[in-house]
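JOB MANIFEST
job_type = single_chain_structure
chain_count = 1
residues = 285
[input]
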Amino acid sequence: MSTSTGGAAAAQQPTSLSPSRANDFMQCPLLYRFRVIDRLPEKPSEAATRGTLVHAVLERLFDDPAAERTAPRAKSMIPGQWDRLLESKPELTELFAEDTEGERLAQWLGEAERLVERWFSLEDPTRLEPVEREFFVETELESGLRLRGVIDRVDVAPTGEVRIVDYKTGKAPRPEYAEGALFQMKFYALVVWRLKQVVPRRLQLVYLGSGDVLTYDPVEADLVQVERKLLALWEAIRLATETGDWRPRPTKLCGWCDHQAVCPEFGGTPPVYPLSIAPAPESAG
């Protein structure tokens, strides 16, 4: 028996895994389904958009000569980068549609300025020459699983050692949650290792919201363990895709989810599953 709808053309079979989508599935399999398979729309958020804006400024600052990479210069780039963001994603105008006086927008841009300025207390861009910025990476494991993602910055020392850097506009997690925060970085390290046959020397998370820098120096065994975890995760995704069985996993994060209206945990009904469902195996006897 299979289930399909007239809107099945909009559906998408999972073909690869990124850190964000892996985290989605671990957080809530139904959320993964809504984002990857159903591709349900989500409203832009001020926090996520501010993160995108700050990332754009920090990326483009390195276009300038080293001596000109100053905090005033970086802050002066924010309005222009905001205009570029609006041009590429017009739907972001919804964020401040009711802000007729422009007060909320001004406050929001001011928060972006403070995040950018804090970065200069954590790193010195005049002494950095990244080899990659907003670096798209993709590799296929022996199992056939494709891993992909975008690394904020890759630094390479004169000795050849690789450092992977990621900017976070939120606050650093408490120590007991640090491993979860490092998952994304170990994911990137695995991809770089498989692509370049080099284990990155350092993974560095720069938390602009709290002014903290979290570092971790991986070894090959770490990356082997991450690969095993991803293979098990992908197998669980494959099984859910074939059976259509995507269980919601309620947590305190549900309060921020855009899909409460179609989530059973909130009395909603998910859309009809748009992919074919494999028949259940018949039991013997």
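[summary]
The mean pLDDT is 92.
The two ends are 21 Å apart (CA to CA).
exit_status = 0
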